């Protein structure tokens, strides 16, 4: 199946024309021998599941326990499930329209349905979302390995705790080494399926975090040293109700994977597998999210921080507490390092498509591939050094670019119904998604802005 072939027949030879779009896999599924590459026979089901799951599970997992603290356990878990179901529905909308129109990318679909500005809007949203996410990843790695100072309190990083403070383990040096030794090799692959093993390891590391957190919480529960968590939110006025909506962008961001769905779909030999792949990934990730949120909130209670990883910088009240602290932080730092290239993959493709819409595919231009890759890594590295914390900005990104990518754009595509496949149920669901997305995220933006202004007034 070639990049531009919407057929599900994996044995059909692709056409020789080159299709220039921004979210197809960097290499076609099958490339002619005279292009210098060997035939690629299609990605496996498990490899696709791990790649999509890695796209989903990222930095958002660390903010979910704080969302549960704000919403309460029952509404919080219900919201995780609801957002997962809406994510599955929105991806299904994109996949059905794409298969019907024999379209191989999200950007191409937006261009077909809404013209050039539709494509540009999608590309810009993916760029804004992914740049913000990758900067957050790098900041977290710096915090975990080199330490951070917040509100006058210094939290030692792992390397600082093990070896003391030195120039070689300072934030700029550690992040530079990470960019050169870890990120640079991983982002050099030209096909998503090449990352299937690192993706599997990434998912395994996320499971390690969940298992350790759950184990510690259960031990402390049997010892009677954990407080009863609140089941529902505490509402003491209108402001507390508005604040509940600030959890919505975090939940939305936690499930954004739409920009890589077409890339994964294109690499499958049998494109009918994409729906069970999406469902399997969402079930896996939702299970990880629910377990992480529940047990982390049970463990830390009302002391759960916005980034729960920061809670693992203290005595957990169990034997070998410092060892478990280090294991959790190291495993999560490694997880983020392995998620980075998956998100970077879509960022590079969309930036290239936005800057060079008429040029040949980036996989066939090594010079452009290298320049864009190095430039993006440099910008992300410098931003991570200069910006101490962007959690507030991350919430704004989740309420704007992420909600557009995940819900509003897919709903608009199905409402436009350019391919005549939308049912009455599809259109009702699409309208519901747009209304919920616009209202909830508008309130979240307002609440975030008011909180920032109030902090400035107090300061």
Q: Class by helix and strand content?
A: mainly alpha
Q: For the record, what is the CATH homologous superfamily label?
A: Amino acid/polyamine transporter I
Looking at the structure, the CATH topology is Amino acid/polyamine transporter I
The CATH architecture can be named as Up-down Bundle
Overall residue-averaged pLDDT value = 79
Q: How many E-type strands?
A: 2
Q: Which percent range describes the beta-strand content?
A: under 5%
What does this structure look like?
By secondary structure, the protein is mostly helical. It has 16 helices and 2 strands. It has one domain (48-458): Amino acid/polyamine transporter I (Up-down Bundle), CATH 1.20.1740.10. Strands 1-2 form a two-stranded antiparallel sheet. The radius of gyration is 22 Å and the shape is globular. Mean pLDDT is 79; it is low at 1-40. One of its GO terms (molecular function) is L-amino acid transmembrane transporter activity. It holds the Pfam family Aa_trans. Its main location: membrane. Residues 43-437 form the Amino acid transporter transmembrane domain.
Produce a short descriptive summary.
The chain has 459 residues and is mainly alpha-helical.
Q: How are the SSEs ordered, and which strands pair?
A:
Blueprint: H1 45-56, H2 60-71, H3 73-100, H4 106-114, H5 116-146, E1 147-150, E2 153-156, H6 158-163, H7 171-186, H8 196-223, H9 238-244, H10 247-254, H11 258-266, H12 274-300, H13 321-355, H14 366-386, H15 391-416, H16 424-458
Antiparallel strand pairs: 1-2
Helix pairs in contact: 1-8, 1-11, 1-12, 2-3, 2-10, 2-12, 3-12, 3-15, 4-5, 5-7, 5-13, 5-14, 5-15, 7-13, 7-14, 8-12, 8-13, 9-16, 10-15, 15-16
Subcellular location: Membrane
Family: Belongs to the amino acid/polyamine transporter 2 family.
Keywords: Amino-acid transport, Membrane, Transmembrane, Transmembrane helix, Transport
């Amino acid at each position: 199946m070639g990049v531009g072939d919407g057929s599900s027949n994996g044995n059909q030879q692709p056409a020789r024309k080159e299709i220039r779009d921004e979210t197809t896999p960097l290499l076609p599924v099958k490339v002619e021998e005279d292009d210098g590459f060997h035939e690629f026979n299609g990605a496996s089901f498990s490899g696709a599941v791990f790649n999509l799951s890695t796209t989903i599970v990222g930095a958002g997992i660390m903010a979910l326990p704080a969302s549960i603290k704000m919403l309460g356990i029952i509404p919080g878990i219900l919201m995780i499930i609801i957002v997962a179901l809406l994510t599955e529905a929105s991806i299904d909308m994109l996949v059905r329209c794409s298969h019907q129109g024999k379209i191989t990318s999200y950007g191409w679909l937006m261009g077909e349905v809404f013209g050039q500005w539709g494509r540009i809007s999608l590309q810009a949203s993916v760029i804004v979302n992914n740049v913000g996410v990758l900067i957050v990843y790098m900041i977290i790695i710096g915090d975990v390995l080199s330490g951070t100072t917040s509100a006058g309190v210094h939290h030692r990083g792992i390397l600082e705790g093990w070896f003391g403070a030195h120039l070689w383990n300072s934030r700029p040096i550690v992040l530079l080494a990470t960019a050169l030794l870890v990120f640079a090799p991983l982002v050099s692959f030209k096909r998503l399926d090449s990352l299937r093993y690192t993706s599997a390891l990434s998912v395994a590391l996320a499971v390690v975090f969940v298992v350790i957190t759950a184990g510690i919480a259960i031990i402390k529960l049997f010892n009677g040293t954990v407080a009863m968590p609140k089941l529902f939110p505490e509402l003491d006025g209108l402001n507390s109700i508005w604040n509940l909506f600030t959890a919505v962008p975090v939940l939305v961001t936690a499930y954004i994977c739409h920009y890589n769905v077409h890339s994964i779909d294109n690499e499958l030999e049998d494109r009918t597998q994409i729906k069970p792949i999406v469902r399997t990934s969402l079930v896996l990730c939702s299970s990880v999210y629910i377990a992480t949120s529940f047990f982390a909130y049970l463990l830390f209670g009302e002391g759960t921080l916005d980034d729960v990883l920061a809670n693992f910088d203290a005595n957990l009240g169990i034997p070998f507490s410092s060892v478990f602290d280090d294991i959790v932080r190291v495993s999560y730092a490694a997880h983020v390092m392995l998620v980075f290239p998956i998100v970077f993959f879509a960022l590079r493709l969309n930036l290239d498509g936005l800057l060079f819409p008429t040029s040949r595919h980036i996989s066939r231009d090594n010079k452009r591939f290298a320049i864009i890759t190095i430039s993006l890594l440099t910008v992300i590295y410098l931003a991570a050094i200069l910006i101490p914390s962007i959690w507030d900005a991350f919430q704004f990104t989740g309420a704007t670019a992420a909600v557009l990518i995940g819900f509003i754009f897919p709903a608009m595509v199905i409402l436009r119904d350019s391919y005549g496949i939308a049912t009455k149920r599809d259109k009702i669901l699409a309208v519901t998604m747009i209304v919920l997305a616009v209202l909830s995220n508008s309130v979240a933006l307002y609440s975030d802005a008011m909180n920032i202004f109030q902090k400035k007034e107090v300061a």
